[in-house]
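Sample 3 of the quickstart, ligand 2-hydroxyethylsulfonic acid:
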Amino acid sequence: MNLKDKYVVITGASSGFGRAAAVAFAGEGAHLILGARRVERLNETAMMACKAGAASVLVVPVDVTRTESVEDFGNTIAQTTKSVQVLINNAGGALGVDTVLNGKDEDWETMLQTNVLGLLRVTRKVAPLMLTTEGATIINVGSIAGRIAYEGGSVYCGAKAAELQITKALRLELCGTPVRVTSLDPGMAETDFSLVRYKGDAEKAAAVYRGVHPLCAEDIAETMLWLAKRPAHVCIDEMVIKPVAQAAPYKVFRKA
Ligand code: 8X3
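Result:
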């Protein structure tokens, strides 16, 4: 699939995988529609995407935890194009490493709102613009956490397990349309993921990657691009991608 002049919608585009994806798809000459809450950082992504060769970049502030905000986001997209080629549901993340017995309501609620309900809201609103688009691709960002649970990860693991099952159901529901649906499930990747999970504690965040060569955001962006560029009859339903040193969430080889 050639992505030149095609419309690509990315949530969580203010940093990490979303930002790297914006730059990667820009390099193909696509039109980008970038959503996130943090407008300043979103504008920085937009600048990077312009430099990388995007056909156009539209920045649309969106809070995926609120239905009205996602409705506005989708209405703006619909006013811009009637045909979306790629939707990357990337907004989400982990908050805290508490056990269930010590869990905080606000962390649980935010994780479920962003990773699960946000993905549902955005898909409900944007997918109708993809139903007649040859080779349209929805990429839902999951995690190895959705496949294997670990201590301190209960709600994040649960949210990503929900993402995986929602993706599978969506794949079934869209069978008969041209829309491909993928769950892209990374392992350890060095973005601000751990800084957010540890609520700004840089030392704890850095310790996650100590002695390991983790994935970087560009590894994931390159994979997203590969998924979207497959011939229109090819759908990669699921993809798990990890650093070589990580065999499972808790089985990590660290160099001394
Ligand atoms: C992040 C991957 O291994 O930290 O989604 O849970 S992991």
